[in-house]
What does this fold into?
Amino acid sequence: MAKPVPPREVRRNKRAQLAMDEEYQKLRRNFTWDESRMRPWAQVAAEARRNNLTAHVGMVFGICVVKDSELAENLRKYKGRYVYQGSNVRDENNDWAVFQDVGSTPATINAGRICDAYGLMKGHTVQQSDAQQAYTQAPFRGEPTWVRLPREYWPPGWEGVNDPVCPLVKALYGHPDSGGYWELHCETLLEEAGFQSLRRVNWPSCFWHPRLKLLLTVYVDDFKLSGPEENMAEGWSQWG
It folds into this structure.
């Protein structure tokens, strides 16, 4: 059972703090945002208005949960995540932001069942894997978007700057269009690896590898692959 950990408890729980810091540093190492291009938001907004351009701004905030919360403390696992506050995004005029509405269409339950059935055939098998920090593998493609980082993680030199922001570079969790950017990125890599999309026959997020005879379904960041057992390792290695 996963249970949310309130911020006040995170502040006094070393294991929760460690989980949060680990997650934040992963995003930073992944260049999810560009701290070297920090500017005051008022300056960014004014420049966008002068040039008749759009600029969005939102906040990055942390969420912490404890997994297996019903067990003893030493058996629990703390998980941190930092996300974009997609419910409160403003533009250069301080109006509510309008998004591109880049929708994602994960594989259906029926597609997953067909993948299982194919894996039950003689000489076949089914295997699963997940993508690590899936969304932030994809480049951010929307309107120029700036983020306000948690104050406790401000780099040296940010103190004294009024409302510092930096540009978002990767498709961070929480942004309304991030799911669509990840799906596009994922499909591109799979097709380059020889997997053919079945979207044209109305099976979104499903792929067929004609040479290896492998069927793949993708549900957000969960991958299910089925087919001849002797081809599975090569199938994963094509793009994993």
About this structure: The chain has a mean pLDDT of 92.
